[in-house]
Design a protein that fits this description.
Elements lengths: L19 E2 L5 E5 L23 E9 L5 E6 L6 E9 L2 E8 L8 E4 L7 E8 L7 E7 L22 E6 L31 E6 L4 E5 L9 E9 L2 E8 L8 E5 L5 E8 L6 E9 L15 H9 L1 H7 L21 H9 L2
Parallel strand pairs: 1-3
Antiparallel strand pairs: 2-9, 3-8, 4-7, 4-9, 5-6, 5-8, 10-17, 11-16, 12-15, 12-17, 13-14, 13-16
Length: 347
């Protein structure tokens, strides 16, 4: 036994001898708040700065039913996790692989060449005492194949405008950057939307109009996020992002300059993954009631968007309030009035 934080009892799986058994494709809740720091817990080779003892280790074990597995962590708030995977070789733990930071501060490790029927041990820990808390641990076996657009460098596109593209985030690793040669280690937050989960990439070329990308159809089966970036190597710039524009699904619009490539990341809340349908379309600024025409019937909707944006969202759930950004400055405010009038009159 070792030092623990606080005054609560350590978890039942605090020691490797008491490792909790999990099965392939299980998702378990992990709480290392009161886990001890044992001197005999193995050091992890992947820890930032070199081999080091992690904090608050708890243990799991699984019997391999396939030759590969993906083990990952998730949480809906900040926390810095570590994972190590081991086999017991005559009483000595042999590290197969480990993971420190692969999705902001979360962890994911893929292990291959497992011996079916052999017991494998999972060491879950956090980098500091500050990160102790409640997490999810997911064991997926066999390891899903990576989607072809798992990495930024492999973004699928250009997507046609308009178009509807079927995709999935199942098997994607938590998004960690743009390839081995990139100086980026994480995908940055955009418009307050954090990137903390597996995601896949697309790109679309700007048309000079307002573009919208959406995951609002019933073909999207999980709680999504959308983030849009412009890319001018080596600079990645946030353009727009959204979490829940249509229920727990996402939709985002932005003025897309002609000829400019925009990269779209489909990701999620927590560790959710699943199939989706990504819709790309042009929308008409000023068409606040979304009937396909900018005319006098849009006046009331425009004023509602300007003065009471929450009521606009409720009254027109299938429309995007950015349709009121008639001067295309990225804001919906009184400076859009003259541009809206010009759209109405054709001036």
């Amino acid at each position: 036994m070792g030092d623990a934080i606080g005054w609560g009892p350590p978890p039942a799986n605090d020691e490797r001898a008491d490792a909790e058994e999990v099965s392939s494709n299980d998702v378990v809740v992990v709480d290392n708040t009161f886990a001890t720091n044992a001197a005999d817990d193995p050091e992890l080779s992947c820890t930032l700065g070199g081999n080091a003892h992690p904090v608050g280790t708890v243990w799991y074990k699984f019997v391999a039913t396939d030759t590969s597995a993906l083990i990952s962590t998730g949480r809906n708030s900040f926390g810095d996790t570590l994972i190590g995977v081991y086999v017991d070789d005559s009483g000595t733990l042999v590290e197969l692989d480990c993971s420190d930071d692969t999705a902001t501060l979360r962890s994911a490790v893929c292990v291959e060449n497992l011996e079916i029927g052999e017991i494998h041990y999972i060491q879950f820990a956090t980098y500091t005492d500050f990160s102790r808390g409640v997490y999810q641990l997911t064991v997926t076996s066999p390891r899903p194949g990576d989607p072809p657009n798992d990495l930024f460098d492999d973004a699928i596109g250009p997507l046609a405008v308009p178009s509807l593209t079927q995709g999935t985030t199942v098997g994607a690793l938590p998004d960690f950057g743009f390839g081995e040669d990139s100086s980026y280690t994480v995908v940055p937050a955009c418009a307050g939307v954090l990137v903390t989960s597996p995601g896949v990439w697309y790109w679309v070329e700007g048309t000079g109009a307002v573009l919208t990308v959406a995951l609002c159809t019933q073909q999207t089966t999980f709680d999504t996020k959308l983030s849009v970036y412009s890319w001018d190597d080596p600079d990645l710039t946030c353009v727009a992002a959204n979490d829940d524009a249509c229920g727990v699904r996402s939709r985002v619009s932005w003025p897309a300059a002609a000829g400019v490539p925009y990269h779209v990341l489909v990701h999620s809340v927590g560790c959710a993954t699943g199939p989706f349908a990504l819709e790309v379309a042009e929308i008409s600024l000023g068409d606040l009631n979304c009937d396909g025409t900018v005319d006098g019937f849009d006046v009331d909707a425009f004023m509602l968007a300007l003065m009471y944006p929450d009521r606009y969202a409720t009254t027109y759930p299938d429309c995007d309030i950015k349709l009121a950004d008639c001067n295309a400055d990225g804001l919906v405010n009184g400076f859009d009035i003259d541009s809206f009038v010009a759209l109405l009159t054709g001036d």
